[in-house]
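Risk mitigation, structural track. In case the binding assays with adenosine-5'-triphosphate fail to produce interpretable data, a predicted complex structure has been prepared as a fallback.
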Amino acid sequence: MASLNVANREIVSGAAPISVSVHRKVFPPVGDRPAQLVLKDISFEVSPRSFLVITGPSGCGKSTLLNIMAGLDRDYDGSVDLGPARDRLAFIFQTPRLLPWRTVYENISLALPDGDPRQSRIAAMLERVGLGQAMNAYPERLSLGMQRRAALARGFILEPEILLMDEPFVSLDEQTAQSLRDLLLELWHSHPTTVIFVTHDRTEAIQLGTRILRLAPGKASVMQDVTIDLTEAQRHDRAAVLAEQNRIFAA
Amino acid sequence: MAPISTRIFSTPKPIAAPLGFTAVLERLAWMAGSLLALAVLWQLIAVYVQNKYLPTPITVFDVLWRESASGDLWINTSATLARVAVAFVVSMFIGTAIGLALGRFKTADKFFDAWLILFLNLPALVTITLCYIWFGLTDIAAITAVALNKIPNVAVNMREGARSLSKDLDEMAKIYKFGWWKTLRHVTLPQLAPFFAASARSGLSLVWKIVLVVEAFGRSSGVGYRLSIAFQEFDVSTILAYALAFILIVQAIEFLLLQPLQARVSAWRR
Ligand SMILES: Nc1ncnc2c1ncn2[C@@H]1O[C@H](COP(=O)(O)OP(=O)(O)OP(=O)(O)O)[C@@H](O)[C@H]1O
Ligand SMILES: [Mg+2]
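Fallback model:
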């Protein structure tokens, strides 16, 4: 696994891989809705600094899986080991989850400890995600896409070692989305980051990932687990991406 | 599917949005105009009826002037205001603590819900008489009686606030390592602020009304005490004069303190 055809994209260091193993995740019954088995026998390892893309139909349990990995949901059978990197984890949620009563700038600033040197880079980061003008606005007065970008800035500013992202680029125009993908890759290159990235966009999956995990509908289990076989140059080549996409999703 | 945004839908909207200067002036003009009309109507009826139990507004202002010149007005209103302030702070504090605990712990909520309903429906007169009988005719008893009437209201309100706390934001705070203090200050309290403000505003009017009753029953100072004396003498002018004075004071607190405060904590709203 983690073949070196992705050369400088994946530096396999000596660090321990992340290992995830969820035997069963059941949501208890709510009202007249019966208990629901959402995840079943999902186990995989993620090597450090790799870029794992997770796809699967809506409602199959992707967000649930990320919540478990982030340690937000501890009510499941199984185990998750993030290794020492667990202390530097950022989670870009499926919704922006900004504090409506704090400005965009304050929202980012609060994610960092007081007096942290990274505090001085907030303005530049907001500039990078195209929110330079909206720094002092309250989130509810921004468009959903702008709120999403603020949430991205909040995750990126941490320079995390593990970055969980739940469909981060939806509801953005293609050009903005592309510039944010570039920003993500830049961050990924400059810091030792392991990215777990949920998306429905197949092209995006192929462009970004080093590996794809496809979850089956219904009780999610791993349907397919493949390494993406593209060089850095090929990722910018439409035809190559399309060919790889066909190879993987034909299965 | 997850919700589209983490907006908090269930918070009560502020009753008065922050107003511009001209809007404030217009509102004041309307208020003054309609109150003036009421005074004129009252004067006309009083002159027509010619009954000593329905004094004219001019007589009432006269009495107000006399009471304030003799100092009685100030002694009595300040005694009442002090009791209102203490009772208000105590009941907001205890009510908030109880409400948050009930909103947080389900078992406690199930158990104490019946108690809350009981206290909510306990007539003010019952708590007042019982407090005086059990604790004597003291200020402590008076304030306890008022607080017992107000606490259930605050608790119910704050419990609603605690129940509607956003789990999404809580998880966000956890991921980004806010710690308890930052979470309390930037995540939890801002969500509770509208509920607190609503309790405070309804609380103030309830508390001062009950304080008057408590004073009439068993204190020898305060507006309530003065009103009970006036009642024994069937002195309607004094009753109306004190009522007027107190309405003015409470309105001033509402207008100068509570409304600006509420406008400030809701500045972020669309
Ligand atoms: N708190 C909850 N209580 C009960 N059931 C839940 C809860 N959260 C999610 N579910 C259920 O678990 C299943 C998986 O939800 P999840 O949000 O993980 O899906 P998803 O794969 O992220 O979907 P999408 O692509 O639409 O975001 C759904 O059927 C959902 O109804
Ligand atoms: Mg999801």
